[in-house]
């Protein structure tokens, strides 16, 4: 295995035996003629993947597609029916609640137990204990057996151990993304810190936006097989199309993009057709000059005219800092649209983001701006040219004056 590779899974198959009735399992085990009473179920079917050091890879797929199973096999919690896994480096895994914990042990004992399972000795774990406890922040509960913990406390401790032991490879199944918002944010910050340190992360989530935000590659599992893998945005967009429009749409995405605007499937409420940046005369722009005026033109097609909608536009910097998200609900603008293709302009005046690369997200939501009817992440990248050198993200409108002026 090359030094650059962190994980290699080769032709992994995982077959479970499914029994129609519980008694069939007993019958099978007692059968002298070795008769089968089960049918095989392929949770994974010939799955191969290679993950390089420093990659942050997201695994996506519908419920039951095999995401947790592949993580369990990679971490050695479960063994494959066929195929081989090679792992290069210390792995720390956040699998389903409880995996790797002994319920009868206290929190502290479990911290040491987990560390040792990862190959750290007692002295090494002594050195890590404080940061684990500080991050978990569950107070004196660490002296109680973990069976007395609430699921939130359990998650805090498990996350804290996995994240603070400084593994080479972090494997996270979203099953653990519980706990309160503050703690989730803390975990996400740690996650970014990990990514920035060039560690390898394998990450399962149903939250496509987090996958887009954090991962540089995505693997889409479907019914135990790899449906597609590659560029995160491309794979995530194909997957969300598949969830929204069904199989034919995701496979035909390229054709669909060609004839957008011609016909909408009746189950689709609306789609964003195009997003352009223009100067105030309507000429297309790729770069924006600092402090200039420009507009964006959003074309969208609606299949209805009875639904109140909200349109939102967000700007992120290229390192994924959320710069500004606005929508027509916040701005108390009512969208009057017709069935068919519509266009809306959003004017930006004296645009004062600092020089650098950014991108736009755009979305159509239902009237409360909670549920996206269509969401196009990273719909357009743009570059701000600026001669004003300051620090931060933007230059807020300002004026200097002396008290006596
Ligand atoms: N011990 C088991 N016995 C039988 N079938 C199992 C077992 N464990 C998992 N499966 C099945 O294997 C398939 C893949 O399960 P897995 O948990 O990997 O899916 P997943 O993609 O992680 O789903 P989710 O998004 O719901 O977490 C599912 O159909 C599941 O029912």
UniProtKB/TrEMBL annotation:
Gene3D superfamilies associated with the record: abc- transporter (atp binding component) like domain, P-loop containing nucleotide triphosphate hydrolases
Keywords per UniProt: ATP-binding, Nucleotide-binding, Translocase, Transport
Ranges of residues in domain ABC transporter: 7-248
Keyword Repeat among record annotations: no
GO terms of molecular function: ATP binding
SUPFAM superfamilies registered for this protein in UniProt: P-loop containing nucleoside triphosphate hydrolases
Family according to the record: Belongs to the ABC transporter superfamily.
Name of the protein in its database record: Teichoic acid ABC transporter ATP-binding protein
């Amino acid at each position: 295995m090359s030094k650059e590779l962190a994980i290699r899974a080769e032709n992994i198959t995982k077959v479970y035996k499914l029994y129609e009735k519980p008694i069939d399992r007993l019958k099978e085990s007692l059968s002298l003629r070795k008769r089968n009473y089960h049918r095989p179920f392929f949770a994974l079917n010939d799955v191969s993947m290679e993950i390089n050091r420093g990659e942050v890879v997201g695994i996506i797929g519908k419920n039951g597609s095999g995401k947790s199973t592949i993580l369990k096999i990679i971490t050695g919690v479960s063994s494959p029916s066929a195929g081989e896994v090679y792992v290069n480096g210390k792995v720390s895994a956040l699998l389903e609640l409880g995996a790797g914990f002994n319920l009868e042990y206290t929190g502290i004992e479990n911290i040491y137990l987990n560390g040792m399972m990862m190959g750290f000795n007692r002295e090494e774990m002594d050195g890590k204990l404080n940061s684990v406890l500080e991050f978990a922040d569950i107070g004196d509960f660490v002296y109680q057996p973990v069976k007395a913990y609430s699921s939130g406390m359990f998650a805090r401790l498990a996350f804290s151990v996995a994240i603070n032991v400084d593994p080479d490879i972090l494997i996270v199944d979203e099953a653990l993304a519980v706990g309160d918002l503050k703690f989730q944010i803390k975990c996400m910050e740690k996650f970014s810190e990990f990514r920035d340190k060039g560690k390898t992360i394998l990450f399962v989530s149903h939250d496509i936006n987090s996958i887009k935000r954090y991962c540089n590659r995505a693997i889409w599992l479907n019914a135990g097989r790899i449906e597609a893998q590659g560029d995160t945005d491309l794979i995530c967009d194909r997957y969300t199309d598949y969830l929204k429009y069904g199989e034919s749409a995701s496979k035909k995405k390229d054709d669909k993009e060609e004839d957008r605007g011609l016909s909408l499937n009746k189950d689709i409420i609306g789609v964003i057709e195009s997003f352009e940046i223009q100067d105030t005369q309507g000429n297309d722009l790729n770069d924006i000059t600092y402090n200039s005026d420009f507009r964006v033109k959003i074309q969208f097609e609606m299949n209805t005219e009875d639904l109140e909608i909200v349109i939102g536009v967000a700007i992120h910097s290229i390192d994924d800092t959320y710069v500004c998200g606005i929508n027509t609900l916040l701005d108390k603008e009512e969208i009057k649209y017709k069935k068919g293709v519509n266009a809306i302009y959003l004017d930006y005046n004296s645009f004062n983001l600092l020089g650098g690369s950014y991108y736009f997200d755009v979305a159509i939501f239902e009237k409360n701006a909670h549920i996206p009817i269509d969401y196009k992440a990273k719909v357009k990248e743009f570059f701000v040219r600026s001669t004003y050198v300051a620090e931060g993200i933007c230059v807020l409108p300002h004026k200097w004056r002396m008290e006596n002026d």
